[in-house]
From TrEMBL, chain A:
UniProt subunit comment: Component of the Golgi-associated retrograde protein (GARP) complex. Component of the endosome-associated retrograde protein (EARP) complex.
Entry protein name: Vacuolar protein sorting-associated protein 51 homolog
Organism field: Erpetoichthys calabaricus
Entry keywords, A to Z: Endosome, Golgi apparatus, Lipid transport, Protein transport, Transport
Pfam families in alphabetical order: Sec5
GO cellular component: cytosol; EARP complex; GARP complex; membrane
Domain Exocyst complex component EXOC2/Sec5 N-terminal: from-to ranges: 48-269
Gene (UniProt): VPS51
Matches recorded under InterPro entries: EXOC2/Sec5_N_dom, Vps51
UniProtKB/TrEMBL annotation, chain B:
Swiss-Prot/TrEMBL WD repeat ranges: 225-261
Residue ranges of every copy of the EIPR1-like beta-propeller domain listed in the record: 2-299
Species, as recorded: Erpetoichthys calabaricus (Rope fish)
Pfam families: Beta-prop_EIPR1, WD40
Family the entry assigns: Belongs to the WD repeat EIPR1 family.
GO biological process, one term: regulation of transport
InterPro entries attached to this UniProt entry: Beta-prop_EIPR1-like, EIPR1, WD40/YVTN_repeat-like_dom_sf, WD40_repeat_CS, WD40_rpt
Metal-binding keyword on record: no
Keywords: Repeat, WD repeat
Classification via SMART domains: WD40
Protein name: EARP complex and GARP complex interacting protein 1
Length: 782, 388
């Protein structure tokens, strides 16, 4: 139709074409929806396409409205429309006719086909009935034969089983010959129940007996193999498995298995022991501790782990599933294993501990720590395998013990280092004395000493710190977090060392008192200063350092810094007191010898100051220098040298005159006593061996006090002639001249010297003192 | 006293009165023996003076039997020395020893007025002279403590001499002697007769060593070398514990020894600030130890831990009867600790001698160089504590 349309409406617009369809559609009452009528009102009677078209109205309208030309156009247009409509109609009719014809053809064809099919179906039905008939006939004929065949096949199976049973002994023998034990056991397992069931029949009983004897043989063989030392763990476990299948008693097997494993583990232990023995004999050449622990871990602990695993596999896990689980065998097996493991591990631990104890060298701690770490790790693996045992706790204990031991060793090392460095100092002091430059660099010695001690402490701390390093497995155990830090390192090591310093210093004071000053005084002085330094700064520094490095979470009380400081101060005080005592003793010994050995009655008139006095002044000066190197000057009562000298001379001479007066006039003894008593009233009591302060003046005052008091006591034990007294006068004046500058209160010196001269005057047979001027001359000349 | 003095002893034979003997030491004046009586009830000190013309007295010791007899070690009189000085150019001051007897009327603790006796001092009767020309200076003379007063030990330089007094103490004969041998000049400084072992042992001090002697064989039985850092000044035996010995010396220490173990002292005190010149155990309460020092202090210590007194004190009946015990109330006392009971600082000069009274165990005297004699009592509180 479309082709027709296109041929008809050549040169026409597409709109008219559509209009054609539209019009046709309209005709057939198919109104196009959604496309509103273009031409206004459908009821318009003038609409030529409308349903209500009235030609009359339309014509009238046309005639009224249009011109002639337009009418002409209208007319041609109309004619055109009519023609196209006509052609359209024709095409449509043609098409429909065509379709109708073809439909009619199809129907006729179908009619023919159906007829054919009906015939074939009839034929099929007939065939089917024939087939059914045949098959029924066949099955009825075959029924008997089928039953026979089933029966026959059942007999065949039975026969094969019987054959297996009859052949079983032979087969088993063959298996044993071929050492295919697994096969044999599986065969036997299959047959066992059957045999058991039919054992009342004699033939079967024979077979059963045969089998049992063979299996007994097999079990025997297995046992032999099991007990054979050379077989490997895997073989062993296989054996055990088989034996278990053969209903061997599990307990016995456990024991045997363990005893067998024990022999092998003991070989390992023996190896370790031998190693240990070697290392004890020749420490230098033996393997170091890391190697030892490594070996122990690899051999012993590895085997042990393997053993535990296979054991558990065999006895515990498997049996839990089996029927034997009800007999408490897993529990029993576990208990046995635990006892066994504990026993062996105890021995191993004792070996390890021996080895650790043999590790005495202080130098390299890292090896030990690493060895301990490895040890600990392996034990943890062990504990995973065997949750119930106390092995890991014991192992940790060993580690803890080793750490403690280590700390103790470090403390000992520190102490010996301290003593060594003291010996060094002592030697260098001695060397100095030999070379003549006495006490030249005490300060230097002090600084090197304290620096080396501090360095040593630091290095030891670093070593110990390895124990708590992050990558070490046991460092996060509670012991290492808490107690090790605070109790072990801080208290045990550092505080212990500081206390040791103080204590050894005190020992210097006490011991040397009896042996007559075996410690050089300079060392005492040095140590005193060292302790004082510790009190002021070093202790708190070291402790802060320690606390920083070992952040212990332990709450146990620790020794406070102040207590240590006060202890150090006490030690310093004691040392200094002792120094004063020793030096005072040296000088007073000199003075005493000089007084005691001289015959004071028959001496000659003094010409000189005695050499002893010069020596005393020299020694005092050198002590002054020595102390000055280490201690501060200190305060003394203010006075200028000139004035003190002058006033003293006047004062003393006048006093001495007054005191000697009674010797010329024996009738006035009261005056002497009165004078001396009044004098004593005003002077304070003197503590001779009183504690000194930490400064030079105080130290020297102490020394001079001791010396002069000795002088006084010695003089009182002697009897003097005239010149003896005069000699004492000269000596005392000389001492006055030189000693005042060392002491804090010169009146003290004056008082003591006055006492000496006074006492010697009392002890004098012929007390006629020397002229002050003469004394001065002698002293200045000397 | 107005003279210097060093020598002090209790009159041991006297058990009723508290009496001390003091010997003065003066070169220029006549030396005296002062007999000091202390009246306990009235707190009065009586003094009788005897002239000791022989010379200055360095050591005095009273006979344990006869209360009028005592010995002195003295330097020869000043005048005599001067004479010898002019006569012989090499003369020396020699210390001699002699046994003396007091005049009869003073024996029983005279009741004369003190000013009378001091204005008219009486002379001593010389019983015998211990001849020491061969042995050098006498350091001290010791009576045998428990016997009949016939035996004396004297220490002279390096000789240890045992004397027998014969013919009613008018003659002294050296019965045996021994010498201390060694390097250098060894000199005995002091000695003490042990009251134990039937009085067969004495201990002596020389320089820094303490030696024990058996006087039967006159041989050394023990020696504590370096007992003190410096000179040992004095010794005393514990009256109740036979092996215990106290010593003191120039190192300011007082040490207590067990002579069975001489390697180290049982205890060591260091309380004085100068030489300790004298140490004495109390005769009946051996925890009380008295020390005198040239720092002019006397220290009374309570050495409970090494005394014969048990800590849980057993009350001594005799002592109780001596003292009127008005402290009947039961006090629970804590055990006494080793401690200093008291420090006495009355002296202004060095104290060279201290001595317990022989009559009253709670009383002691001390003598300083300036001649001051001080008598003190053990503090009352402590006394009752020890007794009750």
């Amino acid at each position: 139709m479309a082709t027709l349309g296109s041929t008809d409406a050549v040169g026409a617009d597409p709109i008219p074409k559509r209009r054609v369809h539209g019009m046709l559609k309209l005709y057939y009452g198919l109104n196009e929806e959604g496309k509103p009528e273009e031409k206004g009102d459908p009821l318009d009677p003038c609409d030529i396409d409308g349903a209500h078209f009235e030609p009359e109205v339309y014509l009238n309208k046309l005639r009224k409205e249009c011109t002639l030309a337009e009418l002409m156009d209208q007319e041609t247009n109309m004619v055109k429309h009519i023609r196209s409509l006509d052609s359209d109609m024709q095409t449509l009719v043609y098409e429909n006719y065509n379709k109708f014809i073809s439909a009619t053809d199809t129907i006729r064809k179908m009619k023919n086909d159906f007829k054919k099919m009906e015939d074939e179906m009839d034929c099929l039905a007939a065939n089917m009935t024939a087939i059914t008939e045949f098959s029924a006939r066949i099955s009825s004929t075959l029924q008997d034969q089928h039953q026979q065949i089933t029966k026959l096949s059942g007999v065949h199976m039975l026969l094969r089983k019987l054959q297996f049973l009859f052949e079983l002994p032979a087969r088993l023998n063959k298996c044993i010959e071929l050492e295919a034990y697994v096969q044999a056991v599986s065969y036997y397992g299959k047959a066992r129940s059957v045999l058991h069931q039919y054992q009342h029949m004699p033939s079967f009983q024979g077979i059963q007996n045969d089998c049992q004897s063979i299996m007994a043989q097999l079990a025997q063989r297995l046992r032999e193999k099991f007990q054979d030392g050379g077989s490997s763990a895997k073989d062993l476990s296989e054996c055990v498995e088989l034996l278990l299948k053969l209903d061997e008693p599990a307990e016995e097997l456990c024991d045997k298995f363990l005893s067998h494993a024990k022999s092998r583990l003991e070989e390992d232990l023996a190896g370790l022991e031998a190693d240990l023995g070697v290392s004890n004999v020749a420490l230098g050449t033996s393997s170091d501790i890391l190697e030892f622990i490594d070996r122990g871990c690899n051999d012993f602990v590895g085997n042990l782990c393997l053993l535990i695993a296979s054991y558990q596999d065999l006895f515990v896990n498997r049996l839990q599933d089996g029927a034997l689980a009800s007999k408490n065998i897993p529990q029993m097996a576990n208990a046995k294993l635990l006892a066994f493991v504990n026993n062996l591990v105890d021995r191993y631990f004792s070996l390890v501990e021996c080895r650790i104890q043999a590790e005495k060298g202080v130098g390299d701690n890292s090896l030990l720590v690493r060895a301990l770490d490895r040890f600990h790790r392996r034990l943890q693996a062990l504990s995973k395998l065997l949750p119930g045992s106390n092995v890991p706790s014991k192992g940790t204990e060993i580690v803890v013990r080793a750490a403690r031991e280590r700390i103790r060793q470090y403390l000992a090392a520190l102490q010996s280092f301290y003593m060594d460095s003291l010996t060094d100092v002592r030697q260098s002091l001695a060397a100095q004395r030999l070379s003549g430059k006495d006490s030249a660099n005490l300060a230097e010695l002090l600084s090197t000493l304290s620096a080396s001690i501090l360095n040593q402490i630091k290095s030891v701390l670093a070593y110990v710190h390895l124990f708590t390093a992050k990558d070490i497995n046991f460092s996060n155990k509670p012991y290492f977090k808490g107690e090790f830090c605070s109790q072990g390192v801080r208290e045990g090591l550092i505080v212990g060392f500081i206390k040791y310093i103080c204590q050894s210093s005190r020992q210097f004071c006490e011991s040397s008192g009896d042996k007559g000053g075996s410690t050089p005084p300079a060392l005492l002085l040095l140590l005193s200063r060292l302790c004082l330094d510790y009190e002021t700064s070093t202790i708190s520094y070291i402790l802060t350092l320690t606390d920083e490095q070992f952040l212990g979470q332990d709450q146990t009380p620790v020794t406070p810094v102040t207590a240590l400081c006060s202890e150090a101060r006490e030690a310093a005080q004691k040392l200094l007191n002792h120094y004063v005592k020793v030096q005072g003793l040296i000088i007073s010994q000199m003075l005493r010898k000089s007084v005691e050995t001289r015959d004071w009655i028959n001496t000659i008139e003094p010409r000189n100051v005695r050499a002893v006095m010069k020596r005393v002044v020299e020694d005092t000066t050198s002590i002054d220098v020595q102390v000055g190197l280490l201690f501060e000057e200190g305060v003394r009562k203010a006075h200028s040298s000139d004035s003190s000298k002058r006033t003293f001379s006047v004062y003393s001479s006048s006093r001495q005159q007054a005191r000697y007066a009674p010797s010329y006039t024996p009738s006035a003894p009261m005056d002497t006593n009165l004078l001396s008593n009044i004098q004593k009233l005003f002077s304070e009591r003197i503590d001779i061996f009183s504690p000194v302060e930490f400064n030079k003046v105080s130290v020297l005052t102490g020394i001079i006090k001791i010396s002069l008091k000795t002088f006084l006591e010695c003089v009182r034990l002697r009897t003097f002639g005239r010149y003896g007294l005069q000699q004492i006068q000269v000596d005392c004046y000389y001492l006055q001249l030189y000693l005042w500058r060392f002491v804090s209160d010169e009146n003290l010196v004056h008082f003591l010297l006055d006492e000496i001269v006074g006492s010697s005057a009392h002890r004098c047979l012929d007390p006629s003192p020397m002229e002050q001027s003469v004394i001065e001359v002698i002293c200045e000349r000397g | 006293m107005k003279k210097n003095a060093r020598a002090l002893t209790a009159q041991i034979a006297e058990t009723d009165a508290i009496r001390f003997l003091v010997g003065t030491q003066s070169l220029k004046y006549d030396n005296q023996i002062h007999i000091i009586d202390f009246d306990d009830e009235n707190n009065i000190i009586n003094k009788n003076v005897l002239l000791h013309e022989a010379g200055e007295i360095w050591h005095i010791s009273a006979s344990p039997v006869d209360k009028s007899v005592f010995t002195t070690c003295y330097n020869k009189n000043y005048l005599l020395t001067l004479v010898s000085f002019f006569l012989a150019s090499d003369s020396k001051v020699v210390t001699c020893a002699a046994v003396w007897r007091m005049p009869k009327e003073l024996e029983s603790g005279s009741h004369e007025s003190p000013d009378d006796s001091s204005s008219n001092p009486q002379t001593l009767e010389l019983l015998c002279h211990l001849d020491n020309t061969a042995h050098g200076n006498m350091a001290c003379v010791l009576w045998e403590p428990m016997s009949d007063g016939k035996k004396l030990i004297s220490l002279a330089d390096n000789y240890l001499l045992l004397w027998d007094l014969k013919e009613s103490t008018t003659k002294a004969v050296i019965s045996s002697s021994t010498t201390l041998e060694g390097k250098g000049q060894l000199k005995f400084t002091s000695g003490r007769w042990s009251p134990h072992h039937n009085c067969t042992q004495i201990a002596t001090a020389n320089d820094t060593a303490i030696r024990g002697w058996d006087i039967r064989s006159m041989s050394q039985i023990y020696c504590i070398e370096n007992a003190h850092g410096q000179l040992v000044r004095d010794l005393d035996f514990n009256p109740n514990k036979q092996y215990y010995l106290a010593s003191c010396g120039d190192d300011c220490k007082v040490k207590f020894w067990d002579i069975r173990n001489i390697n180290e002292p049982v205890k060591s005190l260091e309380e004085h600030s100068h030489w300790v010149w004298s140490v004495r155990y109390n005769h009946s309460h051996d925890q009380l130890v008295l020390t005198g020092s040239s720092d002019s202090r006397i220290i009374l210590s309570n050495m409970v831990s090494i005394s014969s007194e048990p800590f849980g004190h057993i009350v001594d009946e005799d002592e109780l009867s001596d003292q009127e015990d008005n402290h009947q109330d039961e006090k629970i006392k804590e055990p006494l600790q080793d401690s200093i009971i008291a420090t006495y600082e009355e002296h202004e000069d060095s104290v060279y001698a201290v001595e317990w009274s022989s009559a009253d165990p709670w009383l002691f005297a001390s003598l300083s160089y300036d001649g001051r004699l001080v008598i003190n009592r053990v503090p009352r509180a402590l006394k009752y504590r020890i007794l009750l």
